[in-house]
Design a protein that fits this description.
With 379 residues, the protein is α/β, with parallel strands linked by helices. The chain is built from 15 helices and twelve strands. The longest helix has 25 residues. The protein binds adenosine monophosphate.
């Protein structure tokens, strides 16, 4: 293996039918290779295919595994067990498997990715980085659902939060951008991608986040609707005979932007609004209304904020969303500068006016780099 691959981390994000990977140097952030395999039937074969392709391109990871620092895996649910990057052993695999009950859509494919990497790259340490980890230390008042305590305790029902790697990465950059000590910064992070979540962070520690036991709670997303009255599900059970499979399908696939207008991709929704489509318009309005409610809630939780940051596909690219989410909030100390907001760039940047008491940022997220760094730091 060429020396420029020494100490690189192979980051793997395994979905139910996809493998996203990146070979990256944790120190410099230099990406050696990256890709996405879709329509995956068999994770082991798909990963073997990736390694073959890389070898054909002169990056033979399987020939000299000694040079690779680690394989870093994104794992969605760490439950109450895992809140640090964790070296993967058979016991860790068994526990992630046990936690699949909490994340049936997400943990099983991650385990397939882990199994494939352990088999194909024997001798390379595998590290699990959990999407829930950053929210582990949230106050009990934020993690506790107001339902019967015994039932909640028996079944592990509490708010865990997700997208933690992104919230942590983005929020960790903000004190530097503000030139303030991290301990003095209260901030809100809005991760708006296909999935979407908001978090309130005080002095580097999360104090609240919008996703809960599962990634269904909170903001309006591509195919998930976020907060709804739980009575809706009882109602559908009574009047339409909904089974748990029907409910699962409604909540995970037929809600959010998709449920409201038939499109889950934000660009498609925006294009339809420009054509005067009313369903797309309503979908957008519901999306923005929810976002504004969470901004207000987290300003109250924090007692005011130093910064609000937008990140992920929609947050980094959709200037209209950023403007509409924070419009008319001057009395809350928030004022967007339209010219700054219109700038397109891959860099972290300020989009608020100089007078705005709250500094508003766009901060591109980089979950792969964060996973690579956490994996390398562990080893
Ligand atoms: P992510 O999950 O972070 O990859 O974000 C995916 C979402 O970002 C999709 O809904 C995309 O439509 C949206 N997105 C990506 N680029 C843009 C853009 N230029 N304008 C609006 N939305 C975008």
């Amino acid at each position: 293996m060429s020396s420029d691959l020494r100490d690189a981390v192979f980051v793997l994000n395994a979905g139910s039918s996809s493998l996203k990977y990146q070979l990256v140097h944790p120190d410099t952030g230099v990406v050696v290779a990256a890709g996405l395999v879709e329509r995956v039937q068999n994770h082991r074969d798909a990963l073997a295919g990736v390694f073959e392709q890389l070898a054909a391109d002169g990056i033979d990871l399987r020939a000299d595994t000694g040079a690779l620092c680690a394989v870093g895996h994104r794992v969605v649910h760490g439950g109450q067990t895992f809140y640090q990057p964790t070296l993967i052993t058979d016991e860790v695999v068994a526990e992630i498997e046990r936690l699949s009950a909490l994340a049936p859509l997400h943990n099983p494919p991650a385990l397939l990715g882990i199994g494939a990497a352990r088999e194909l790259l024997p001798g390379v340490p595998n590290v699990a980085v959990f999407d829930t980890a950053f929210f582990h230390g949230m106050p009990d008042a934020a993690t506790t659902y107001a339902i019967d305590r015994d039932t909640a305790q028996q079944y592990g029902i509490r708010r865990y939060g997700f997208h933690g790697t992104s919230h942590e990465y983005v929020s960790s950059l903000v004190p530097g951008l503000l030139r303030k000590p991290a301990a003095d910064v209260d901030q809100i992070v809005l991760h708006l991608g296909n999935g979407a979540s908001a978090s309130a962070i005080r002095g580097g520690r999360a104090v609240d986040t919008s996703m809960g036991l599962t990634p269904l709670e909170g903001l309006v997303m591509g195919t998930r609707g976020g907060d709804i009255d739980p009575g809706i599900l009882l109602h559908l059970d009574r009047v339409a005979g909904y089974t748990s499979a029907d409910t699962d399908e409604l909540l995970n696939r037929r809600s959010g932007l998709k449920g409201l207008c038939g499109d889950n991709d934000f660009r498609a929704v925006t294009a339809r609004i420009e054509d005067g489509d009313e369903a797309a318009r309503l979908a957008y309005d519901v999306y923005i209304h929810r976002l504004r409610k969470y901004v207000g809630a987290y300003l109250a939780v924090l007692g005011g904020a130093d910064a609000i940051s937008f990140t992920a596909g929609v947050g980094e690219n959709a200037a209209a969303v950023r403007e509409d989410a924070l419009a008319g909030m001057q009395r809350l100390g928030i004022e967007i500068d339209p010219e700054r907001n219109a700038v397109r760039s891959g860099e972290a940047r300020i989009i608020s006016t100089d007078e705005s008491a709250v500094t508003v940022f766009v901060v591109p997220t980089n979950e792969e780099l964060a996973i690579a760094r956490q994996s390398a730091a562990l080893l």
